[in-house]
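Hi team,

As requested, here is the filled-out complex form for the magnesium ion run. I kept the field names the same as last time so the parser does not choke. Let me know if anything looks off before we queue the next batch.

— J.
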Amino acid sequence: MLQQGWIVKAGLEEVSEDAPLSGKGQGRPLVAKAQRRELEAVLAGGTPLALVMVRVAGFSLFERLYGATLASRVVEELERVLQEEIGRLSPQGQVLILERLEGASFMALFPNGVHGLADLFDMALRLRLSVRNKLNHQVMKLTGQCLRIEAGCSFLPADTGRNFESLLHFALDDAHQAARGSLDPSKLGLMHQFRQILEVPLLASVYQPILDLRRGEILGWEALARGPEDSYFSSPQMLFDFAEEVGNIFTLERVCREQALAGLGGVGQGQKLFLNIHPQTLGDPSFRPGQTLNLLERYGLSPHNVVFEITERHPIKDFTLFHRTLEHYRSQGYLVAIDDVGTGYSGLSSLAKVRPDFIKVDMSLIRGIDTNPVQRALLETMVTFANKIGCAIVAEGIETQTELTSIVAMGVHYGQGFHLAKPQAPKPQICLPVSLLSPGQRRGGQELTCSMPVRELVEPALQVLPETPTKNVKRILDSQPIGGVVVAQDDRPLGLVMSHSLDRLLGAYYGTSLYWERNVTRVMDPVPLIVEGSLPVEQVAGTAMSRERFKIYDHIIVTDNGRLMGIVSVQKMLDALARVQVEMARGMSPLTGLPGNVALEQEIERLCRQESPVSLIYADLDNFKVYNDSYGFESGDQIILLMARVMSWALRRHGEPDDFLGHLGGDDMVAITTPERAERVCQAVVRCFKRLVGACYTSEDRRNGFVMGKDRAGRPGRFPLVSVSLAIVDSLGPCQIGDISKRAAEVKRWAKSIPGNVYVRDRRSPLAGDEAMAPEQVA
Ligand code: C2E
Ligand code: MG
Ligand code: MG
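And here is what came back:
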């Protein structure tokens, strides 16, 4: 980390990009006096200073294209990343100064007693790779473009007796030259390490399962490469970035592929191996299907078991060739996934052209999806899109139960993430009941959604006629607090002019002379998003957020039968969605993420009105108080979670796809399924809960089969392990909600009076049916 107190924040030196040491900046000291003394003292003490400079190439063009605000955000981000990285990478971890020179160019100085030029080259390269990675992650989101990062290094020799400023200028000039030509890989110590990794090979694969979220089964395994532990190359990102840098992607990929197959240990019936393939590799002569086929056969696999994951983080240079190559592999039975969707180059239209078998949605869209309405809207659009073009969505990076719950409720087909299992070698065991998904908000499409039509959010639009000169539109936009105007004729919208787009056009070379006097039609967006006011907010938000990046925050024009009603800003729409999200969250149990009382009541009321028969399963834990008393509430919560997971799993395994599970609070849960499925679900719950609950006890209690405690009246005694009691109540047609509750209470009492894990079915005449019989114990 950068040492606190050592950082000098310089004022921006106005120096031209091509000649960093000339122009207005020349003659002014590059570092402040106090820091200079510090640095001079190091040199005088006989320790040379190392200088590393990092810059964004072509930054002034970037600034012109995207404007000063975005450019200064990039500089801030660059500085933040440098502060994070440079201290970590510098030989002694001691950075004396990190200073901005001009534009997006920084230099760092640190004492360098022992390291030679090769080490310094290594460091500059590592810095460049990390900065490129981290900075472009942000910049890509903002602009859809990647920045080129350059890094160079040099020394300020010790004890030369020369003036510090001139030493610094020489060193900066050298570093600048090194940054502009690429660093010679033969000089890099890292190159030797890298070669060794490929030759031995010192690579291995870890495997992360991808789960079928509807069936709870494993769809397949993604192989992820790992370099030697504790080395610079332990992470695949570093391996691949370095390989790209030194032009050795193909060999690295081949070794990774071989290692992935060698360590796999086969796959289960119908399971798939997901292999990451760099888009460049598709054009690699050694990546021939015949060779891959031989390799697969050696490990008992066929092309149908293999999914090639192609990331969209890298641009595809020749789309036609890419497409043809993919088709070639597919004709032989291989499947194709587009990886990291949402981070990079492919819009929905190019996805539609490739028609992958899987779309892997990047974790930046998944993390926190349970609380972010924009992400939800985007993912929902993708699911609809995938269903339309006949492919499946894989959500990557699921880290929490609530993220999983949201994703399942949205109908996402497959999921992957640390919450389900971390990548491991050999393949991790995953115990399905414990990593469970919650059926819940699915029954009968009963999701709580924002059904508000978008017209309710409309604001009046400022309209101009198509023949209005651009200069008038600019004046309107400058004089009023509105983001855009609608170009319309006879109340029919023809286009949209957003203030920020107009400024960009006019600010470009010859922008003003080209457009100032011309009609607004020259500068308007002729294909803005126009929607009918009756459409639900979610749907509009989904479409809005899937627009091209530079239009994503443009207003949406709302019409009524094609006539202009007004506009809606993206912000307003997202605020409305956020409110709904909060309402939804209120209805959910914070512990289990399952729908709570309100949703359950709505569901039961709905069922009471319908003709088709249903069964309600009421679940309750026995001896739970004593467990809570002796093990504490946190452990008690774990048992409730276990019960939720077991019930959820049993419903998915033995129930119908749209079954419902609600959590009333405490240890009370209710499941709703069909009468034919109810008993199988209960049998699975009883069996599975009994088996898993033992893990919640100390080995001594488990062995004894009881714990010592006090009952509700404070009487001491031995109490059996926690068990589950289930009560089934059937309704054959329309009935009263009060009748159901009364029956449920009676049958549950009956179930609880029987020791152990049991379920009981009400055998009296079903509600909305004939005469009563006594409840019957069935397990
Ligand atoms: P990817 O293909 O998108 O792989 C998923 C990455 O997300 C993996 O990182 C995985 O460990 C990580 N991950 C999975 N679940 C979670 C989660 O819940 N939370 C978080 N924070 N991370 C999660 P990893 O292994 O570091 O790989 C990074 C990238 O390196 C991969 O991204 C892939 O693009 C590339 N890569 C890895 N192995 C290979 C390979 O053999 N060939 C090629 N071409 N690329 C590879
Ligand atoms: Mg992948
Ligand atoms: Mg990915």
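Two things worth flagging: Confidence is low (pLDDT under 50) at residues 1-26, 431-450, 769-775. Residues 59-89 form the longest helix (31 residues).

Thanks,
J.
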